[in-house]
Amino acid sequence: MVIADGGRRVTVAAVQTNPRLGAIGANVDDIEQWIRRAAARGAELIVFPECAVNGYRYATAEEAKADAETVPGPTTGRLARIAAEVGALVAVG
Fold first, then answer.
1. Collapsing DSSP states into helix, strand and coil, what is residue 22?
2. Segment (H or E) for 24
3. Cα–Cα distance, 69 to 25 (Å, whole number)
4. pLDDT tens across 48-64, in order?
5. Would you give the distance in Å from CA 44 to the centre of its chain?
6. Entry pTM
């Protein structure tokens, strides 16, 4: 998708992944590959859905706390480094 903002065009990629429940490392590896693919095709903003990192698996807030990370933290730090490397903005839920 290409959007115009004040005459400047921005290429946006919306990515729908299939995260594995609780497989945070593997899910982030998958997200990284999608970031690199989208950026290689010219995307400047790459957007992922909610729970792309952890998968949809929490019945309660207490269950979610086990996987919670600080921001900045290991996952956000890795994704920020990748985004900087490819020169894109990345939104990951």
1. coil
2. helix 24-40
3. 13
4. 998 899 888 788 888 88
5. 13
6. 0.86
Q: Which residue has the tokens 């995260």?
A: 19
Identify the burial level of 19 via C-beta atoms within 10 angstroms of its C-beta, where 0-12 means exposed, 13-18 middle and 19 or more buried.
buried
93, 48 in Cβ contact below 8 A? yes
Token reading at 29:
């590896």
The DSSP symbol for 45 reads E
Contact 63, 22 (CB under 8 A): no
pLDDT tens, position by position, 63-85 = 888 888 899 999 999 999 999 99
CA atoms within 13 A on the CB side of 19: 24
User: Which of 64, 32, 61 lies closest to 48 in space, CA to CA?
Assistant: 32
Q: Is 62 helix (H, G, I), strand (E, B) or coil?
A: helix
